[in-house]
Amino acid sequence: MKTSDHGGGSVFSAASLLFPLLFVFFGCSAPCDSSLPSTERKEAESEVLYAEKFSLGWDSGCRVVKVFSPEHLLEHTYVLMTDGGVPPKHLRQATVVRVPLESVTCETGFQVSLLEMLGSFEAIKGVSGKRRVGQQKVHELLERDEIAATGFMRSINMETFLKVDPDLAFLNVTGVSSDVFEKMEAYGLRPGYFCATVEEHPLGAFEWIKFMGAFFQKDTLAAELFREREKAYLEVLRKATEAKSRPTVIAGYSRKGAWSTMGSSRWFVTMLDHAGASYLFEDYGLERGHLLGHEAAMEAGLRADFWVNTHFTVNDLDGLLGMDERYGLFKSVGKEQVYNNNNFRFQNGRNRFWDQGMTEPDVILADLVGIFHPEILPGREPVYYRRLVRRDSVTK
Q1: Which architecture characterizes domain 241-395 according to CATH?
Q2: Burial class (CB in 10 A: 0-12, 13-18, 19+), 351
Q3: What would the pLDDT profile of 45-68 be if each residue is shown by its tens digit?
């Protein structure tokens, strides 16, 4: 296992206190090797513009990546070094990572998509499984046992992780309590804390491509890919400001006596605002994770102009009403202004919205602007969204 470069920089990392001798070999203080040519280093030093959960920088010649999420009691520092580099004393309690990474595991399809964009797909040696990763080629690799299924959260298979022994294991940091991070570090494995899904801004979520790029020494490519999508997003946002009204919208679905808003991450709520809509659940207190009070949610449904991101299996209004006939009282259902984010799929039928859509915030925003304000983007056919209508209206 890769224990020689492991250190602790997170409050999750109590287990790292068991390994104080791991840093003895560093010897006297010496600067890190510069891992990037001067032109690329200048590009990499540009500030992170939208993301609030990570930072990139340089310290004493070392490439430093920090991840922080106060609500999750997380603060972790990575020092990225080429072979032979030595960090100065004040950075030796960070997690030292040799770059570029050669083997990683991914928990989500979004992480896989970012590595695909960076041309680093071949470094993926394991994924959580088919449930959270939709890409067809990943499913095929799993079926041929060419990459490992590691499980996720409380179902993580630590034995499989130890066999894969990745340079870094990218894991989502969410509001769900779990001791998986402490377990991994206790076994000498290094988690790559990944907070993109809890970012407040859609571009902040996609900006984690820069986080990934740093570990593969592809900072310039990551910055170029980000700028391209940022420019497109801001152009759609500019057009959305022409809206003359702000329709109301809800998201989610009724589930076991509560209302689930799992389809409404923080960045998505911001996107609804950018698309010129008023999200009726924005100020509701979430009781458990993404669950809120059923009665309050249903009351909002009665008056919302639009409803988006219903249950992922629903393709028409008949299917939706089959889940709960009370949905028929919703204003959005009566006007057939219900849109689900399951229109764009992989060959295997898996939804692309979370795996690929998060890398195309400009496309999702254009979908939503076209839904709420069709006069702004006339004639535009949505990519990720489908309008739910009754089956008999489709056959007519």
Answers
A1: 3-Layer(aba) Sandwich (3.40)
A2: buried
A3: 557 999 999 999 999 889 999 999
